[in-house]
Amino acid sequence: MPQPNTYFQRVYSVTEAIPLGRVTNYGAIADFLALGSARMVGWALNKCGHLSIPAHRVVNRKGELSGRNMFPTPFLMQEMLENEGLTIINNKIMDFEAVLWIPVDHLDPQDYNE
DNA sequence: GTTTTGACGGTCT
DNA sequence: TAGACCGCCAAAA
């Protein structure tokens, strides 16, 4: 696992580390990378929209698909999550707490922090 | 070089 | 309990 220097590279690494069928929120990633603000995570993912990282597994703290509007088609994000076994109703993840995956609780911050 | 906005979160009122 | 405000850092206009 390489050690990305830029903050968005760190966000990409953590996002790629999200297990299939699990989701995380911006605050968790921000706290994990000590970025200080969840907006940085969202902004970084916005820029990564053209990459192949599972950005659809990152949602806001409410479990809502905030970034669905950013995808080519708003339904694509929901389709992808549903395809992973998640239940999405009204753009919200059902049992969000059950599928919530916090990087700090599974990964070591120092591994992603230089 | 300054201002506004952005896939958010936490705290205050 | 719900709504509003502020903070965080970076990029684009």
Note the topology.
Blueprint: H1 7-16, E1 24-25, H2 26-33, H3 38-47, E2 58-59, H4 74-83, E3 88-89, E4 92-93, H5 96-99, H6 103-106, H7 109-112
Parallel strand pairs: 1-2
Antiparallel strand pairs: 3-4
The protein binds a DNA duplex (13 and 13 nucleotides) through α2, α3 and β2.
Rg on CA atoms, Å: 13 Å
What is the arithmetic mean of pLDDT?
87
What is the topology, as strand order, of the major beta sheet? 1-2
Q: What is the chain-wise order of helices and strands?
A: HEHHEHEEHHH
Structural class assignment: mainly alpha
Distance between the termini: 12 Å
Molecular shape: globular
Count of DSSP strands: 4
The CATH architecture name reads Orthogonal Bundle
- Supply the CATH class: Mainly Alpha
Describe this structure in words.
- The model has no long low-confidence stretch (mean pLDDT 87).
- Helix content is 44%, strand content 7%.
- Helix 1 packs across helix 3 and helix 2 crosses helix 3.
- The chain is mainly α and 114 residues long.
- Strand 3 and strand 4 form a beta hairpin.
- The chain has a two-stranded parallel ribbon. Strands 3-4 form a two-stranded antiparallel sheet.
- The longest helix has 10 residues.
- It starts with 6 loop residues before the first helix and ends with a helix.
- The protein is built from seven helices and four strands.
- The protein has one domain: Winged helix-like DNA-binding domain superfamily/Winged helix DNA-binding domain (Arc Repressor Mutant, subunit A, Orthogonal Bundle).
- It binds a DNA duplex (13 and 13 nucleotides) through helix 2, helix 3 and strand 2.
